[in-house]
């Protein structure tokens, strides 16, 4: 899990509950490479599901595939 002393946002588990009216698939476990995918990427991907465009959030590097 992330290092709170360094404010690292990597390797932090997240649980998404709900299906966004069919826009989010459920009953899955998704794993992404450790220490390379910041939480901002997840947040950007969730915003996309709500049709909200944002170029970046914090240290994001892009969007998550298969969300």
Structure write-up:
The chain has 67 residues and is mostly helical. It has one domain (1-67). The chain is 16% helix and 0% strand. It has one helix and no strands. The model has no long low-confidence stretch (mean pLDDT 87).
Assign a percent range to the helix content. Answer: 10-25%
**Count of helical stretches:** 1
Tell me, rounded to a whole number, the average pLDDT.
Answer: 87
Q: Rg, please?
A: 12 Å
Class derived from helix and strand content: mainly alpha
Distance between the termini: 21 Å
Give the tally of structural domains. Answer: 1
Please report the total strand number as a whole number.
0
Give me the strand/helix succession.
H
Largest sheet: none
Overall morphology? globular
In percent terms, what proportion of residues is strand?
Answer: under 5%
Contiguous uncertain segments of 5+ residues: none
